[in-house]
Amino acid sequence: MVALIPIERIENRILLVRRQKVLLDADLAALYGVTTKRFNEQVRRNQARFPADFMFELSREEWDSLRSQFATLKTGRGQHRKYLPHAFTEHGAIMAATILNSTRATEVSVYVVRAFVRMREVLATHKELAKKLDALERRIDAQDETIVDIVRAIRELMAPPQPKRRPIGFVTPEEKQRT
Fold first, then answer.
1. 179: which residues sit within 8 A by CB, 6+ positions away?
2. Model pTM?
3. CA atoms of 1 and 104, how far apart (whole Å)
4. Whole-angstrom distance, CA of residue 69 vs CA of residue 72
5. DSSP string over 4-36
6. Helix (H) or strand (E) run with residue 53 in it
7. How many CB atoms lie within 10 A of CB 30?
8. Using alpha carbons only, what angle is made at residue 22 by residues 81 and 82, rounded to the nearest 5 degrees?
9. Distance between CA 65 and CA 69 in Å, rounded?
10. Rounded to 5 degrees, what angle do the CA atoms 91, 24, 51 make?
């Protein structure tokens, strides 16, 4: 029986490449308990099972960008990849489990699917929250002038009336009647 793999461990390996959530071949191989070389051999032997929306090869620029983010290059001969890695989408990761034909690959594929689903749910929650905040902001902006007018009216009502002042100096009888 496979020890439970924390979904967070799988989620940390999921990357966003070409606007798709993917797992790299080395990460899938490690999860499925095989070497990257053997994993890629099986993928090459079953190329028909991996259309472009299941798997694609990273470009040199994409790989260099990811490597600079990892910052875990080892020194020495034979420590670096000879070929560009493959990136597997959610469906490609599941298909990879079927070509490996091992119990571990089958069991781990369940966790991989759960990790992708959980990430999708989190993204959906963030989108819903953003929509609600936008709607609230629009309502406040629309009512902003009304609120300001109401506050101004309340302040005018709260202010005591100006007392009538008696003018300084000589006042004619006509001016006395007006006041």
1. 164, 166, 167
2. 0.60
3. 8
4. 9
5. PPPHHHHHHH-EEETTEEEEEHHHHHHHHTS-H
6. none
7. 16
8. 10
9. 7
10. 40
pLDDT digit string, tens, across residues 14-42 = 888 888 889 999 999 988 888 889 999 99
Mean pLDDT, range 147-155, rounded to an integer:
66
Measured at the CA of 101, the angle between CA 98 and CA 103, to 5 degrees, comes to 105
> For residues 57 and 49, is the Cβ–Cβ distance under 8 A?
no
**Helix, strand or coil, per DSSP, at residue 62:** helix
Answer yes or no: are the C-beta atoms of 58 and 87 closer than 8 Å.
Answer: yes
39: nearest Cα among 82, 99, 109, 107: 99
Distance of alpha carbon 53 from alpha carbon 143, whole angstroms: 47
Identify any residues that bridge with 21 across adjacent strands, giving them in sequence order. Answer: 16
Measured from the Cβ of residue 48, the count of other Cβ atoms closer than 10 Å reads 6
Cα separation of 154 and 147, whole Å?
A: 11
- Which residue is it, tokens 């002042």? 165
Q: How far apart are CA 107 and CA 42, in angstroms?
A: 18
What are the CA-CA distances from residue 171 to residues 57, 111, 177 (Å)? 98, 95, 10
Strands 15-17 and 86-88: unpaired
Q: What is residue 102's DSSP assignment?
A: -
